[in-house]
Amino acid sequence: MQSVALIDYGSGNLRSAEKALRRAAGALSRAPDIVVTADPDVVARADRVVLPGVGAFAACMAAFEARDGLEAAMGEACRTRGAPFLGICVGMQLLADRGLEFGETKGLGWIPGDVARVVSNDPLAKIPHMGWNGLVDCRAHPLLGGLPDDCHMYFTHSFAMTPTDPADRLAAVDHGGRFTAAVARGNLAGVQFHPEKSQGAGLRLLANFLEWAP
């Protein structure tokens, strides 16, 4: 049985992410084992890794780095062995080189880019960006399999990632201007929205991740 390590580093959306992953896994013919863990040995051996995240970039990065051996274990699983990785919300943002929230904070640097405050050009499009919004500019990818280009996902954030290489952007969202909604490079992927709060579309994306073979 394949294992999915859902990283526990004190993130606020851990339990809702766990519940959604278990529901998505239960609909598959061969359901993987979802393991909530901060154990580096478990993470290093995992077949898939999910990194959730809620809150400020700097606080999440500090909490992640405070777990001894966790970054190295995640690197062993995802960068050395090529295990599929999914970052959710701030978990996606941590893939960037740096976050520019409350100063500059170094990220993982797995997908080059910066995380900066969303700027809206529409006074009716309020920041923080909260609520349902449709994906646009989607490129073909197994993670989005079976989803229409304009499928709606649930967002709640004030900062967004801009990849250095535009080819790393998997999908965008328009909220007073277009910004990154999802990224993908090789076996690494991340979504700014919350699939665990996005009902059927979010569960489909999580199921796609659980079967993704990059």
From TrEMBL:
It catalyses: 5-[(5-phospho-1-deoxy-D-ribulos-1-ylimino)methylamino]-1-(5-phospho-beta-D-ribosyl)imidazole-4-carboxamide + L-glutamine = D-erythro-1-(imidazol-4-yl)glycerol 3-phosphate + 5-amino-1-(5-phospho-beta-D-ribosyl)imidazole-4-carboxamide + L-glutamate + H(+); L-glutamine + H2O = L-glutamate + NH4(+). Its EC number is 4.3.2.10, 3.5.1.2. It comes from the Bacteria. Signal peptide: none annotated. Pfam families: GATase (PF00117). GO terms for molecular function: glycosyltransferase activity. Its main location: cytoplasm. Pathway: Amino-acid biosynthesis; L-histidine biosynthesis; L-histidine from 5-phospho-alpha-D-ribose 1-diphosphate: step 5/9. CDD domains: GATase1_IGP_Synthase. IGPS catalyzes the conversion of PRFAR and glutamine to IGP, AICAR and glutamate. The HisH subunit catalyzes the hydrolysis of glutamine to glutamate and ammonia as part of the synthesis of IGP and AICAR. The resulting ammonia molecule is channeled to the active site of HisF. This is Imidazole glycerol phosphate synthase subunit HisH. The keyword Secreted does not apply.
